[in-house]
Amino acid sequence: MSDPRAPLRLGVDRERCVGAGMCALTAPAVFDQDEEEGLVVLLSPAPAPEHRPAARMAAGLCPAEAITLTG
Amino acid sequence: MSHDPNAVGTTTDDLPTLPTDRHTGCPFDPPEGLTALSDEPMRRMRYGDGHVGRLVTGHAAARAILADPRFSSRYELLHLPEPMEGMPGQIPPAPIGDIIGLDAPEHTRYRRLLTGRFTVRRMRQLTERVERFTKECLDAMEEAGPTADLVEAFAQPVPALVICELLGVPYSDRERFQSQVATLFDQTADAGAKGDAHTALLQYLGELVLAKRAEPTDDLLSDLTTSDLTDEELAGLGGLLLAAGLDTTANMLALGTFALLSNPDQLDALRADPGLAAQTVEELLRYLSVADPLLRSALEDVEVDGTLIKAGETVTVSVQAVNRDPRRFPDPDRLDIHRKATGHLAFGHGVHQCLGQQLARVEMAVAFPALLARFPTLRLAVPPREVPLRERSNIYGVVSLPVTWDQV
Ligand code: SF4
Fold this sequence. Notes:
With 71 residues, chain A is α+β, with helices and mostly antiparallel strands. Chain A has two helices and four strands, in the order βαββαβ. Chain A has helices at 22-26, 52-61, and strands at 9-12, 31-33, 40-42, 67-70. The relative contact order of chain A is 0.34. Chain B has 408 residues and is of the alpha+beta class.
């Protein structure tokens, strides 16, 4: 398995997002949802090491495949 | 089995149907017949009308299918696992406002109007109100004790009070919607009875929508009257949200309490550390998987993990089986509130994943610890075998849960 603390760049696709909130629940330091549509807001495109494992998990849990990871 | 299940020429009579009989085993486990079919992640399965489609029991395959837009949710494309009285195999298209039976872009239009109302933050802001409703129900239960039917005293009213307040539906009107909702989820009700229940529910919501248009109040239905939705769409959507809010969390609360009472070590662990509430909720969601199964129809030939699913085939995703997939959840039949149960598909997956899931999480994370704290000696008032189960319902649970406690 790759090092969960390896550098990480994130992307989100608000067109795909279905507002289920798994990201904001799993990695609240990295993702939020906007007030109007409840769609994903990326707070931290290059999260600090301590938030990377949660960010990776959020990407895996997102039901709409709206979060992309690049190392 | 030694033969290739995909081989041409296998007679369809030999193919399994969806096992639903839970009679023999533990009330929290999937039917034994289903577990027996779970060795292969995607088997061929015979449907109620003779259609041959798939039964998905593997976690990875289920995720892939539910996230793939080439699998449709449109009711009219689906075959039912079992024949329904008065409905031969196939289902009519989704009635207006029932977005569960729609695909993008129609589904997206409605969903976008709602997602902003069900965010993690908004649902957390409801915590105080959930706590208040929970306390009121517990007070009434304690006063009437030391016995109660937990379903009636607690599991149903808490989520009902919350969804009514959120939508702007008067709780005092519940005789106008509660039994209708129950009929809609009851698999033993025939198509006629379901139709009548649906009409009555829509009529009630229709009246409410007109009232909200005339005199808006501070709630979701009133807010939606400012969108471009028609009265009919609003009534349909309101009915769906109400039904979903009433009957899902209620079953989780009652069945979840039954499961905890049946696993005293887990119950004690949660009592000792209420900080485990959130992960207990995830584990109960996984372990009980009350909303099951999910159906999809392949719009074209799709290969999933090396298995070809042909255009037109209905796929039955058995959430119960998927959430007990040992490749994803080790020792899956054990209720273990210390495990990481995240990744379960109890709320579904893909664009239809439950809109109300964050509300359900808040409700359960408040309600379970509050119940246990209020009644330290809570126990079943009947032998476990005598607890009546909702065997034939789209949402599994208990019909009633007689409990008792020592009065102090
Ligand atoms: S988990 Fe995915 S679908 Fe849900 S809010 Fe986040 S990005 Fe959107």
